[in-house]
Amino acid sequence: MADFNTHILGAAAVVSLGATCATKLLSLSMPEGLMLMVVGVIGGVLPDLDLRSSQPSKALFAVLGVFAALAWLFASMSYFTGIELWLGTLVVFMLVRYPLAYGFHRMTTHRGVFHSLIAALMAGVVTSALAWQHMGTSALQSWLLGLSLMGGYLVHLALDEIYSVDFTGARFKRSFGTALKPLAMQQLPASLLVIFITIVAFFWSPPYQQAITQLLDRYTDWQSALIPTWL
Ligand SMILES: [Zn+2]
Predict the structure, then answer these.
(1) Which of 14, 27, 40, 119 could cysteine-pair with 152, CB 3.0–4.6 Å?
(2) What's the pTM?
(3) By C-alpha distance, which of 42, 77, 48 is closest to 63?
(4) What's the CA-to-centroid distance between 213 and ligand 1, angstroms?
């Protein structure tokens, strides 16, 4: 029976392969490669944020709050004093953990719009945009982070479809297509919102021409980089 652990393991297995190959092919630094893996595993649990008032969902929003607070802290480091930074970090965490989680759960149903391909795309583009705008990563690394998160997200959707489980390990009577669907047609307003956010985030994302140039500069021969000599 598959559950939360399966989602973590599944995402980690697939994403670590992608991240390792990308690290070798593009001569990424170790921190860059590690970031790809971490973000991919986060993508592997992200769709289940829509689980209502369960322990794992609370834990996920707490983790998300910590990430948001740390991101704010690093982005604001040079503008504020120590006490202000500490207070701001606390406020950001609280905002994510309570009002955002509350609003989010009011708006979503489990296996609704967040379990769809368009949501996976949104999560990827938003990640690239956030990395590019706030973390100072290169255009290429920003897009790789988005791709990695989207990869983990897609693994989650596929696993849900295969095992028909939810975050807590409870079994569902399976109706095929509740996880891997392009759009949530029953939730049209929410689906349109997801599309809107994706388009807005795309304008904030790094220029892809720049990412492609960086990719071609760094690309090395895949055969010698990836295939062992004993094969
Ligand atoms: Zn799920």
Answers:
(1) 40
(2) 0.79
(3) 42
(4) 36
